Amino acid sequence: MSDIVVTDQGPIRVVRMYRPEKKNALTLAMYEAMAAAIEGADRDAGVRCVLIAGAPGAFCAGNDLADFLAAASRGGALGGPILRFLYALAKSDKPLIAAVGGVAVGVGTTMLLHCDHVVAADDAKFSTPFVSLGLVPEAASSLIAPRLMGHARAFSLLVMGKALTAEEAKVSGIVNTVVPAAEVDSQALAAAKEMAALPPEAVLASRRLMRGSPDEIVARIDAEAEEFKRRLASPEAQAAFVAFLSCRR
Fold first, then answer.
1. For FRET with 31, which of 7, 61, 157, 221 sits at 20 to 30 Å CA-CA?
2. Which pLDDT score, from 0 to 100, does residue 173 have?
3. Strand-strand pairing, 58-60 and 164-165
4. What is the pTM of this model?
C-alpha cells in the first residue's frame, strides 16, 4: 500500500497518510503526493471538499527525520516538496477537513491551521517542538496561530513547545469537535458530507471572504522557510539535533 492513499468518495476527496509503523512521519514523496491530491481537487469540479486523515492511532508524527536530514544536507530543508504541500494548503479553494487521532507533531499540527474543520479524538495530542530543536515554526504558523489562538497561547505552543490535549486545542480554536477515538473518521466524513451538500459557489465565495488573499500566507511560508534554513545550519540547531538523536538510540 502507498504511504499516501487518495480516494474520492463522491464529492469528497480523502487524502490518508498511511505509514503506521512510523506514525505517518512524512517523507518528501508523501509531501509530493499530498500536494498533488489537493491541487488536483482544486481542478476537479466534482470534488467539493478534501478530508485529510491518518492511519489508525496516529495523525502525523511530523517529518521523517532521516528523509528530512538528508534533504537538509543538500540545502533543501524546507524546499521543493514540502513547500509545494504548504502552498497547496494555503491556496486551496476547496474546504479542508481533518480527522486527527493520536499524535499530531510539528507539521502534523501546523497543517491544521489551514483547515476549515478539524475533528479530533479525545486522546489526540498536539505539539510543535521546533524551537527545542533550534528551529522556527513553519507552514505560516507564526502568522496564523497568534491570530487564531491569541499571542499567549500561540507562544506557549510554538515557542515553549507546550503540548495541547484535544480539549485544549478545541478551546484554542484549532479543533472544532472532540469525539471518541473510534468515531474520528466517521464524524469527520459526516462533516465533509454536510459541507459537500452546501451550494459550492456560495461556499467558495464565503471561504474566500473569510480567508482573504493567500498571498500573505504564502509570503510568511517563504519567510519562515528562509529562517528555518538559516537556523538549521546554526551551531545551536546542530547541537540540539545531536542531543535529540543520541536520546533516540
1. 157
2. 97
3. unpaired
4. 0.94
Confidence of residue 76 (pLDDT cuts 50, 70, 90): low
Neighbours of 21 (CB within 10 A): 7
Element (H, E) at 112: none
- Give the span between the Cα atoms of 198 and 194, in whole angstroms: 7
pLDDT range class, residue 249, cuts 50, 70, 90:
low
Burial classification of residue 170, based on how many CB atoms lie within 10 Å of its CB (0-12 exposed, 13-18 middle, 19 or more buried): middle
Measuring CA to CA, how many Å separate 224 from each of 13, 29, 136, 218, 249? Answer: 29, 22, 7, 10, 30
First-to-last C-alpha distance (Å) of the chain: 29
Q: Which helix (H) or strand (E) holds 8?
A: strand 4-9
Q: What is the DSSP string of 59-98?
A: EE-SB-HHHHHHHHHTT-TT-THHHHHHHHHHH--S-EEE
Mean pLDDT of the chain: 93
- Across 79-96, average pLDDT: 95
Q: Is 88 exposed, middle or buried (0-12, 13-18, 19+ CB in 10 A)?
A: buried
For the cut 90, the answer to whether the pLDDT of residue 42 exceeds it is yes
Structural domain boundaries of the chain? 4-179
Which residues does 190 contact at the CB level (< 8 Å), separation at least 6?
A: none
- Report how far residue 240's alpha carbon sits from residue 135's, in angstroms, rounded to the nearest whole number: 9
Query: If pLDDT is split at 50, 70 and 90, which confidence band does 78 have?
Result: low
| Encoded amino acid at 188, one letter | A
